[in-house]
Amino acid sequence: xxxxxxxxxxxxxxxxxxxxxxxxxxxxxxxxxxxxxxxxxxxxxxxxxxxxxxxxxxxxxxxxxxxxxxxxxxxxxxxxxxxxxxxxxxxxxxxxxxxxxxxxxxxxxxxxxxxxxxxxxxxxxxxxxxxxxxxxxxxxxxxxxxxxxxxxxxxxxxxxxxxxxxxxxxxxxxxxxxxxxxxxxxxx
Length: 188
Fold this sequence. Notes:
About 0% of the residues lie in helices and about 55% in strands. It has strands at about 1-5, 10-15, 20-30, 35-45, 50-55, 60, 65-75, 80-85, 90-95, 110-115, 120-125, 130-135, 150-155, 160-165, 170-175, 180-185. The strands form three sheets. Strands 1-6-2-3-4-5 form a six-stranded antiparallel beta sheet, with no helix packed on it. It has a five-stranded antiparallel beta sheet with strand order 9-8-7-10-11, with no helix packed on it. It has a five-stranded antiparallel beta sheet with strand order 14-13-12-15-16, with no helix packed on it. The radius of gyration is 21 Å and the shape is flat. The model has no long low-confidence stretch (mean pLDDT about 90).
């Protein structure tokens, strides 16, 4: 069993029966009273971040997690199928475990976070950026780059995002999967 002295960013612990990672921490030793550790804890399953204060020397239960690369294959009604890049084993992941699933594109390499002791998948992280083609948008306007005006566009995964006015159907763009926003137009 570890103590608060072992706390570091990225450490996964069992907190109130939930798996959380430490996003940020600070050891505080006030002039009066005992020392303590202020932390920001991110729930692995829900992504919710909470603040918590541990007293110095408090026992914490460290959980070992592993990040494994998997290739996205296809979707079903209940979830998604992924394939391990090394062993070619396939794994089925339920829909609620994939955040921003509208940006999943066949063939993309994703990271699945596993609970190492139980060999259970916890959550799927999409790549930071994806390159996709615009399947539908209103016609583009040449030279209209001075304003920050945007218009709706549908990408090949079926998701709808906002793009600048000069983007037209058939253009390839880069999308940030975390925020769901347009990054840049790619050269064909």
